[in-house]
Amino acid sequence: MEKLQVAIEKARSQRQRTSPPVALKKAPERTTTLWEQLTPVSVSPRILERNRLVASTSGADSGPFDMLRTRILQQARANSWKRVALVSPHSGCGKSTTAANLAFSFERQSDLRTMILDLDLRRVGLAKILEQDCVRTMGDVLTGSVAFADHGRRLSDNVALGLNSSPVGNPAEILQSGATVEVLNAIEADFKPDIMIFDMPPLAAADDNFGFLKNTDCALLVVAAEQTSLDQIDVAERQLAELTNVMGIVLNKCLYSEGAYGYGYG
Ligand SMILES: Nc1ncnc2c1ncn2[C@@H]1O[C@H](COP(=O)(O)OP(=O)(O)O)[C@@H](O)[C@H]1O
Ligand SMILES: [Mg+2]
């Protein structure tokens, strides 16, 4: 019996010595980030020209948008704000055109991650200006039926875009829902943007802004020179001030000659 025990021990120790070591494969490192998973958009020079997208390259034309970008950043940093809504008293003031140009301007600010989300769910805005086809909407994202990671697009590596393929039913109800609060918080937690810009419907259109702006840190009022009256600006500013912080006013569609500043660069 004792001999048998010794033989078993011997066999076991030989087996241990001769059996090859178990090779544990190193788990592959996760090389793609959520940002990299977003589908890249490509905007041709013709689209840029057709749709007043002047901020794609740094220069005299992009100057006002770069200035706006920098002012937004300064105010956001000074006040610890991240979520900025673009709002206007009436439609056609140029919010979506401004949002699209800011996308290019922020793209060149490559140390920052910026998200630009089209939350004017009543019409196709940003997707039309950038001439991008998509199948879902930000309404689908906000109601949780599609993940932003599957719907969002990106310009380079640092600007994410949330576009709409079509108008959405019940926009006001979606924008003021609890699901929207949760989805936006989750997007912010997952993607960790430095700045989030929301392209909103006009204040006069419906109650969309009134239900949504509680989710923002501040709003920029975009008005159109010679189209928006002082009364409209006044009313809009007061309405905004009751809903969020007013970051400032952008006077769009301004006619001025280069000499109006007294000097020109480039
Ligand atoms: N700075 C500008 N100068 C001239 N036209 C502009 C300017 N900004 C926007 N537009 C034009 O005004 C119209 C409405 O612009 P859009 O960005 O869709 O406005 P909103 O989103 O506020 O409704 C579009 O035809 C756009 O090309
Ligand atoms: Mg718009």
Task: Looking at this protein, list some descriptive labels.
15% strand, disordered C terminus, 8-stranded mixed β-sheet, elongated, Rossmann fold, binds magnesium ion, binds adenosine-5'-diphosphate, 266 residues, single chain, alpha/beta
Summarize the structure.
Helix content is 41%, strand content 15%. With 266 residues, the chain is of the alpha/beta class. It has one domain (46-254): Rossmann fold (3-Layer(aba) Sandwich), CATH 3.40.50.
Notes on the structure:
The protein has 266 residues and is an alpha/beta fold. It has one domain (46-254): 3-Layer(aba) Sandwich (Rossmann fold), CATH 3.40.50.300. The protein has twelve helices and eight strands. It has helices spanning 2-18, 34-37, 45-50, 63-79, 95-107, 126-129, 138-142, 148-151, 171-175, 178-191, 208-212, 230-243, and strands spanning 39-40, 83-87, 114-118, 153-155, 159-162, 195-199, 218-224, 245-252. It has an eight-stranded mixed beta sheet with strand order 1-4-5-3-6-2-7-8, sandwiched between helices. α4 (63-79) crosses α5 (95-107). The radius of gyration is 26 Å and the shape is elongated. The protein starts with a helix and ends in a 14-residue tail after the last strand. Mean pLDDT is 90; it is low at 259-266. The structure holds adenosine-5'-diphosphate and magnesium ion. Magnesium ion (MG) binds next to α5.
The largest pleated sheet is described as: 8 strands, mixed
Q: Which bin fits the share of residues in helices? A: 40-55%
CATH hierarchy class name: Alpha Beta
**CATH homologous superfamily classification:** P-loop containing nucleotide triphosphate hydrolases
Main sheet strand line-up: 1-4-5-3-6-2-7-8
Strand % is: 5-15%
Shape verdict: elongated
Distinct small-molecule ligands in the complex: adenosine-5'-diphosphate, magnesium ion
Structural class: alpha/beta
Number of strands: 8
Termini, distance in Å?
99 Å
State the CATH topology.
Answer: Rossmann fold
List segments where confidence is low: pLDDT < 50 over at least 5 consecutive residues.
259-266
Instruction: Tell me the number of helical segments per DSSP (H or I, 4 or more residues long).
Output: 12
**Rg value:** 26 Å
